[in-house]
Design goal:
97 residues, single chain, 3 helices, 79% helix, mainly alpha, elongated
């Protein structure tokens, strides 16, 4: 059981880092939308390819408010919730094993 606890704790840490990194990708994409970057830039294309699937799903659920896309804010709030609830719960479960 001790090994499973360590595995679960490690998984929780990696999940937390991945969520944190994805949150920063969403923030960078939102900031880039203000300056209208070159769509052929490889970095811009990477950001769009990585973030668009999640933002698209959020846009389908939440319509734009007066032409303002709030999907990045909603996705960031969901990521914060997942970090606070799922990652911390996994760490607590790992600590009890």
């Amino acid at each position: 059981m001790f090994v499973f606890g360590n595995f679960l704790f490690g998984f929780a840490k990696v999940l937390g880092i991945a969520l944190h990194l994805y949150m920063w990708l969403i923030i960078i994409r939102a900031l880039l939308s203000w300056v209208n970057p070159d769509p052929y830039n490889p970095i811009v294309r990477f950001l769009y390819q990585v973030t668009e699937p999640v933002l698209y799903r959020a846009r389908r659920i939440i319509p734009a408010l007066g032409g303002i896309d709030i999907s990045p804010i909603v996705v960031i709030l969901v990521i914060i919730f997942l970090q606070s609830f799922v990652v911390d719960t996994l760490k607590q479960i790992a600590a009890t094993l």
